[in-house]
Amino acid sequence: MSFFAYKNGEMHAEGVALATIARQVGTPFYCYSAAALRASWQEFADAIKGTNARICYALKANSNLAVIKLFGDLGAGADIVSVGEMRRALAAGIRADRIVYSGVGKKASELMAALEAGIGQINVESSAELEVLNAVAGQLGKKADITIRVNPDIDAGTHEKITTGRKENKFGIDIDLATEAFAKAASLPNLRVVGVAMHIGSQLTSLSPYRDAIVRVRSLIQELRTAGHRIDRFDIGGGLGIVYADEQPPSISDFMQVVGKETAGLGCELTFEPGRRLVGEAGVLVSEVILVKPGVSKTFVIVDAAMNDLIRPTLYDAWHDIVPVREPRPDAATICCDIVGPICESGDYLAQNRDLPPLSAGELIMVRSAGAYGAVMASSYNSRPLAPEVIVDGTRFAVTRPRPTIDEMISTERIPPWMVQAGQATKG
Ligand SMILES: Cc1ncc(COP(=O)(O)O)c(C=O)c1O
Ligand SMILES: N[C@@H](CCCC[NH3+])C(=O)O
């Protein structure tokens, strides 16, 4: 079921026409469907029913407070990678003990903030981090519950910039060095090892890398137990893919079956950290055509969303489906065009060589599957205000993060006093 569909010739998010939102909020804007978010959550919830497993939503995919709150209310914990994300999870009402803190480079000050807040699990990724965390926990008179994230050296078969489980990637401790790390952790008085973690990459469309990685980590768990370590939790990470073009990602229930089969008999509580799969298809980016520029070799449709709003096309050569907000006639001719933004970079495009019905200035377009790694990766390059975020729920909609004004963007900056004085002197 699509939560973004044409009704009466106009693209709607659930019961709200995108053109209505555009009139009120301006363009570009991100729009999320609450029903779509609930539906993707439900798929996970159904698949883990009756098992010893929990879902910690990976905030990095979309850290909009309303989105986090929606999942939190449905029972999600959170997977965070910074104190900023921790603050967001807590502000949205997720209990600290349901938060897992991942990340390859946590600073002592961040670890301290996490322990002070009572974060439930810290996934440690290096021997150096074990020592720092032990020292910080000691200062606070606390014992930190940790897992050690291992790097199982498995090719996830995804884009090279978002694969994380090969030994040449910076993440986790090499599985071959893991026993040493666990022994070290056990010797540190302020740490309590509760399990093992992995995360092999993002936008995975095949289950075999998960299977292969779990098989490796499973034998590690058995070895660790033989060596006397208590391993109660197995954090599988996130990574499940979504549809951008014609991918066929596995269903959540097939994924859970594979995980269930490969972890059977281990007696571990499982943690899943899905991000993209929960939010990706539940969000779109809406933009207005500024002008159309026919060229000698191609036609450029210049829109008011740019690489600063959605960086995925230029960063990962990612393909996002783009459709006009006003439904084209079924027999409408198409033209091949590049959909580009106003930024001063040739890499500023949302799509290249795309066949679309002819578009004209003032028309709206919708970029699909933009709910994950869209707004969170936006910048204000070229001093462009961050696009606002809107959530639709049935026939209601609300702006959850407004567009900042230019004044708000520049008002926190300061010109050093000596420059102000020098300027006055020059003028004088
Ligand atoms: C440790 C960890 N967990 C979870 C995720 C979420 O990944 P995804 O959005 O692909 O589900 C990531 C990002 O890839 C991650 O680094
Ligand atoms: N930012 C990436 C995903 C990175 C996953 C984080 N470890 C994307 O847009 O596909």
Automatic annotation (TrEMBL):
UniProt keyword NADP, yes or no: no
Keyword line: Amino-acid biosynthesis, Decarboxylase, Lyase, Lysine biosynthesis, Pyridoxal phosphate
Entry function: Specifically catalyzes the decarboxylation of meso-diaminopimelate (meso-DAP) to L-lysine.
Gene Ontology MF terms: diaminopimelate decarboxylase activity; pyridoxal phosphate binding
EC number: 4.1.1.20
Designated gene of the protein: lysA
Lineage, broadest ranks: Bacteria, Pseudomonadati, Pseudomonadota, Alphaproteobacteria, Hyphomicrobiales
Species per Swiss-Prot/TrEMBL record: Enhydrobacter aerosaccus
Chain ranges of the Orn/DAP/Arg decarboxylase 2 N-terminal domain: 37-279
Reaction(s) this enzyme catalyzes, per UniProt: meso-2,6-diaminopimelate + H(+) = L-lysine + CO2
Residue positions where N6-(pyridoxal phosphate)lysine is found in the record: K60
Domain Orn/DAP/Arg decarboxylase 2 C-terminal: 30-371
Family as reported in the entry's similarity comment: Belongs to the Orn/Lys/Arg decarboxylase class-II family. LysA subfamily.
PANTHER family (alphabetical): DIAMINOPIMELATE DECARBOXYLASE, GROUP IV DECARBOXYLASE
Protein name as catalogued: Diaminopimelate decarboxylase
GO biological process: lysine biosynthetic process via diaminopimelate
Residues forming the catalytic site: C344 (proton donor)
This protein's pathway: Amino-acid biosynthesis; L-lysine biosynthesis via DAP pathway; L-lysine from DL-2,6-diaminopimelate: step 1/1
Residues noted as binding pyridoxal 5'-phosphate in the record, renumbered to the chain: G239, E273, P274, G275, R276, Y373
NCBIfam families associated with the record: lysA
UniProt superkingdom: Bacteria
